[in-house]
Amino acid sequence: MKTYPLASRSLEEALELQFKTVDSITRHFTGFELLCLGDLGVRRDIGRPAQTSLVERVFAETFDAEDAALVRGAGTGSLRWSMLAAFGQGATVLVHDAPIYPTTRHSLDSMGCVTLSADFNEPDALARACEVHAEKIDGVLVQHSRQRPDDRYRLGEVIARVRDVLPDVPVVSDDNYMAARARALGCQLGASLSTFSCFKLLGPEGVGAVIGTAEMVDRVRKLQYSGGSQVQGHEAMAALRGLVYAPVALATADRVRREVVERLCSGEVPHVVDAALANAESGDVLVEFDGDIAERVLELAPAMGAAPHPVGCESKYEICPLFYRVSSTFLSERPSWGKRVIRITVMRAGASTVIKILNKIMAAVDGAARSV
């Protein structure tokens, strides 16, 4: 099983990001403000809660950006508002030649956007597409996490190639699942805006982040002027606490999933013929079996202590490992994986726990086969 997992922060690098965030907090908050849950409402001077404004400054500094805005709608909302601000309705948007994430496709369709595609895995083909369609392209959308099992493009290289040909065209990066895990977001690599869900960074439900240039973030903020659109102070403070703790949690999970792959490939679990790291949405272990038992494995997993479905993919609620079907975008490319492959997101578990659950499931599968 050949995959091209994205590079993740080491534990040491994750600690550095945590320390960077806390240092920024000390510059923008007093000690008393940091111990407040947060204010409410639309302040006349800034158009949003004061605590939200302070948190946005920290988010911007943490990811080396000019500005940041917290918005409603989690990752989907942050991406939708960013595309609306950067591209506008009816825009022609260049995307990767791959299945588009379903909620992203709904957003593009609802905006009346037309998509053009290029293979981002081939830098020269991407550059040619930008040249050929230069007069048509209103914006470029790049998904940081993988859309196909064989995706191997580097986000920074994709953005650089686009900028070489289309220097003034806005680029929006969908950094869901990679924020605080990857060494750099799209906005740190030249994108106009980066978008992600704070829920995936141990934050509150329904809050997303938009980070990038001051001009583009201001456009997003102007679309959020009403009181009901504001992320309230207590929600912003919850997002800030998540941002502090998420990097180390994500780096620990990445270390565990590498160990899981190594142990599965060494033969610790019967019926497992292959395992690989993948960014199939979140950071996952893809596990391939020697027969069409994937559905049975997923049926048995909850009774063995595994989570049966995602909540937010590495959210604050997800502790035990998730045993789940392969992502829809991956399955559209490899339909046969639905019967023989599952993905495991280790969450906060250790490798031995994941291996133990798999071995218990295989024993149940073998026991059922013998009784037939």
TrEMBL record:
Keyword Acyltransferase in record: no
Protein name as catalogued: Aminotransferase
Domain named YhfS-like C-terminal: residues: 259-358
Pfam families noted in UniProt: YhfS-like_C
UniProtKB keywords: Aminotransferase, Transferase
GO cellular component: cytoplasm
Lineage, top ranks: Bacteria, Bacillati, Actinomycetota, Coriobacteriia, Coriobacteriales
Any one of the GO BP annotations: L-homocysteine biosynthetic process
Organism, as annotated: Candidatus Olsenella stercoravium
